[in-house]
Amino acid sequence: MSTFWDRWARFYDCTQWSNRRVNAAAAARTAALVPAGARVLDCAAGTGLFSLAAAERAASVLCTDLSEAMLEQAERKARRRGLTNLRFARRDVTALPDPEGSFDAVIAANVLHLLPAPEQAVREFWRVAAPGGRLLLPTYLQGKTGAAYGAVIKIYQGVGFHYEHAFTPETYRTFLERLNLGRVTVEVISGRLPVGLAVLQKP
Questions:
Q1: What is the chain's Cα-based Rg?
Q2: Is the dihedral of CA 175, 136, 21, 4 positive or negative?
Q3: What is the DSSP string of 64-77?
Q4: In the Cβ-directed half-sphere of 186, how many Cα atoms lie within 13 Å?
Q5: Fewer CB atoms inside 10 A, N or C side of the chain?
Q6: Distance in Å from the first CA to the final CA of the chain
Q7: CA distance 170 to 92
Q8: Beta bridge partners of 69
Q9: What is the pTM (predicted TM-score) of this model?
């Protein structure tokens, strides 16, 4: 997977332009749910949209991705904004090296639909979340996409992009509830390619 994302890192923000309003709204809403002064882990952060938004409220943000090229783009953006409370590291979302309870909030935006076994990643997020911590999991809802944006997705697939799950709000909630980790809420951020923002609170 990293080979595709390494290749597209320089162009990634441009490819997101057609869905920019949904992406910006999802990042802002997710950041608003980050507790003030929190230690935040952002998984599969890409070029850092959610990390940078969370950094406005958090004490620290660890911005991670499997692609080094994506992380380089995210770090450049952080420097341009003068943000000094971010660190960057390469991570596999299914095998995090961090100890249990390391973070007050774990963000994983728009990645679960790409994974063959997304439950492994969610359990890792839960493990590294501190007691009382939050999992903030905004995920694209391909199963709720209109015909017009469906054509855009087919173009992406033509250049090597593939996803494993076409979630709807209902199937996304059901997937998370079956993990028996706690109460799940899913807020839909509507638009061309809508996002389902799932929130789980660790006891």
A1: 16
A2: negative
A3: EES-HHHHHHHHHH
A4: 20
A5: C
A6: 33
A7: 27
A8: none
A9: 0.90
